[in-house]
Amino acid sequence: MKKLYIILFIILNTIMNGSAQELTGQLKDSISEEPIADVLIKIDDTEIHTHTDAQGKFVIQNLNEATYDVSFSKFGYESFTRTVTIIKDQSTIIDTRMIVKSISLPTVSVAAERSVSAASSKHLSAIDFENRPKNSAQDMLRLVPGLFIAQHAGGGKAEQIFIRGFDCDHGTDVASYVDGIPVNMVSHGHGQGYMDLHFLIPETVGEMDVFKGPYSPKYGNFATGAAVSFSTKDTLENNLIKLEQTFIPEIGNVSVPRVLAMFKAPFNSENVKTYLAADILNNRGYFDAPQDFTRVNLFSKTIFQLNDHSSLKLSLSTFSSSWNASGQIPDREVLAGRLSRFGSIDDSEGGNTSRTNFNLSYVQRTSNGEFETQMYSFKYRFRLFSNFTFYLEDPINGDEIEQDDNRSVQGLNTRYSFFHKLGNMNNKLTVGLSYRADDIQNDLWHTIDRTRLESKALANVLENNSAVYLNETFRFSDYFRIETGVRYDYFVFDVADQLPTDSLHTNYSGTNYQSGINPKLNFIFTPNDKLQIFINSGRGFHSNDARSVVQDKSNHTLPVADAAEIGTVMTLSKRLVLSTAFWWMDMSNELVYVGDDGTTESKGPSRRSGIDISARYQLSKNLLADADLNISRGRFIEKQFGKELSQDFYIPLAPTLTSSGGLTYTGKFFESSVRYRHIFDRPANEDNSIIAKGYTLLDLSCAYKFRKAKFSLSVENLLNIEWNEAQFATESRLKNEMESVEELHYTPGAPLCLKIGIVLAL
């Protein structure tokens, strides 16, 4: 028996000693310091290999005592090889940073793909938009190739968004999130999916992920054209103060002051880190009637490092703004010389809005994955005065309306991602749950000079959205993987009509329920470090306004978008990277919000297709050229009741061709860029009889670093062209007109603007 114990001890000791001889480590991004998942680690001249987990960690066990060449590679990063020596009874550790391919200068980098499933998807870090002129987070969206925005209500209202053949209005087909909190508003007083990002201070943003198309199961409602996820910085490197002033020479002494302060809390410790940010903006504007746009933002974020594997994040923010607006003006009045381009028909337009957010999230990293749960809540208030048609409906008092939205929202997001083995494949599974509840009061009033005349709509809305999603990554080899997923959403719409029932108004209180299943399937092929091929398909949806859902249950509650694309990312040389994506999308029903009626109009099914092309060329060590071209075609494919169209039926304001690009110089102390953005003429109405005019803008920016200060100068609309920022085909009637006229109405774009700024690091 004693001999048996000795033998067992020897065997056990041998096993334990063998397992102790291992190679471990962690890989992080050299810029963001974020862990990099899915890096291939391979021991040269052997079949031994593995991949990093969600924490960027890896382990190779049972290695013999020897010296090995170990290679590290991931698409979008510079590959490298390390020589390591394995010593008996010891673990050898490699903790290092991977560098984004040199084709990308930091200031405008095509950031390495982070497990995305489309050539058109991008990950951007703070350094990507550090030197871009911006007054709001909405301006950061211009970094997305093919995405254009337009403001048409005094600066305070959410911008109009255009992407991939969509006029997304204020967000109907672009889902947006900030630290996991949804930005889009369901059943909003001014439009379904209303997406106001003005509560987000741009300088607090650490990362931005963009996903074009409905190919990710993580994103549900409104993620048809695209989804955008902002992540705020966890900590600050330095305290800073930023001062900016804008001058408009054409108008005279008009300025837009902006003050930003960001400070680390004095009680910070190794395990508790807090920072605060405050942003104040006041903008008179360039219109004849002063805009008086005032915005105040406050934000705080605290990170509690509980241990090496878990953390707690708490963020609080509040935002308020008020503004006046000149609205859209009729082209006929400007052409006749009766109205200046910066004038107005009704200068009582404008409004105010506020939002207060609470966000708490817990992250636990396991040996092979990550668990995250989040609770959020926000209170939101919105009031907007608009006059689209002037005196069309009411020739005495005019057609001004007041739209009110007052809501509280609570939500929960939970996600667990982990790596697991399936045969010889090292797969990754993500399981997610989400819940959102909106308690809304919507008002619509007929007004004159912001004085209420009569109520046109008054309703209490309760809308709940529960969802579960799965995403599995099958890695068949180092060169080929499949991502498949599915998302299930369940909606409850409950509307209580508060207006009295009479001959002029039918009560439309009621409840409706709807669910939808949306599958995704993506193929990613990486034959070498110079080529990546994507084939993606998926179904997305955007919900209808609850009031329309219960008022007319024949309406499409959850119109779906079936889409597919094939794309490539190619490194054609050491200096040139080219990305392409061919895509198409069928929408089951186009929904258009009728603001002056508080309802949704069904336009029927549509079809879109197009191509996205992006090129990045490193001209020299410090000089980068980039260009993006986006071509799309969008049409209604049948009328409302299934009748075939006899002619092309255009999707109003859908972009047909957009392009952007420029040159960027980055030196040790001096940075500069010159950039263009172009949008081609496009149909403003369904028969293409009215054209929304295109434009090409040229912008210049430069910055000089001196010790702890950074001085900046930017010129927007460098050539001082006349351009229309927002355009609509609208039927209107002026007070002195007997008949209405349907024609182009627009908000003029800004003339040449000079902006100077200074950032002080404290």
Overall form: globular
Count the E strands.
44
Architecture of the largest domain in CATH? Beta Barrel
CATH homologous superfamily (4th level) name of the largest domain: TonB-dependent receptor, beta-barrel domain
Largest sheet: 22 strands, antiparallel, barrel
Number of domains: 2
Rg result: 28 Å
Commentary on this structure:
By secondary structure, this protein is mostly beta strands. The protein has two domains: 97 residues, Sandwich (Immunoglobulin-like), CATH 2.60.40.1120; 536 residues, TonB-dependent receptor, beta-barrel domain (Maltoporin, Chain A). Helices cover 4% and strands 57% of the residues. The chain is built from four helices and 44 strands. The protein has a 22-stranded antiparallel barrel. Strand 38 and strand 39 form a beta hairpin. The protein is globular. The N and C termini lie far apart (73 Å). The N terminus is likely disordered.
Question: Layout of helices and strands, plus pairs?
Answer:
Blueprint: H1 2-20, E1 22-29, E2 40-43, E3 49-51, E4 57-60, E5 66-73, E6 80-86, E7 91-98, E8 122-125, H2 137-140, E9 148-150, E10 160-163, E11 166-167, E12 174-178, E13 181-182, E14 205-212, E15 226-232, E16 240-248, E17 252-255, E18 258-264, E19 272-283, E20 293-305, E21 310-325, E22 329-330, H3 331-335, E23 349-365, E24 369-386, E25 401-422, E26 425-448, E27 451-475, E28 480-497, E29 510-528, E30 531-541, H4 546-551, E31 560-571, E32 576-594, E33 599-618, E34 623-638, E35 644-650, E36 657-666, E37 670-679, E38 682-683, E39 691-692, E40 695-706, E41 709-716, E42 724-732, E43 741-748, E44 753-761
Parallel strand pairs: 1-7, 12-15
Antiparallel strand pairs: 1-4, 2-3, 2-5, 5-6, 8-14, 9-10, 10-11, 12-13, 14-15, 16-17, 16-18, 16-44, 18-19, 19-20, 20-21, 21-23, 22-43, 23-24, 24-25, 25-26, 26-27, 27-28, 28-29, 29-30, 30-31, 31-32, 32-33, 33-34, 34-35, 34-36, 36-37, 37-40, 38-39, 40-41, 41-44, 42-43
